[in-house]
Amino acid sequence: MKLGVKADYGQKTAQYYLQQKGLVALKKILPKYDIGGFTSYDLSHLTMKQQPHVVPMYHAIHIFQMHALYTISNDKTYLTYYRRWAGYVK
C-alpha cells in the first residue's frame, strides 16, 4: 500500500504530492528528535536553547508512528528509526 490517493483516471492528486513533500521533510528532520537514548517531544532544545522535553509516553508514540509509517510506506528509514527508538527502552 502506498501513501497518497490516486484519482480514478490514474493520475496522482495534489494531496499525494503534498504528502510526499511532507515525508521528505520528515525524514530530514527526524534525526533532530533523537537525543541519544530517547526522543524529544519537540525541537525547542534547538530552537529555544533549552533542555529537551523528554516525555516517556511521547517516546512510545514516536516508536508507534515510525512503525506505522514503515508499514504503509515500506520506507526503510522509518524501520531504522523504529528499531533504534524501540531499542532505547529495552
TrEMBL record:
Residues 11-86 form the D-glucuronyl C5-epimerase C-terminal domain. It comes from the Bacteria. Pfam families: C5-epim_C. InterPro entries: C5-epim_C, C5-epimerase. This is D-glucuronyl C5-epimerase family protein.
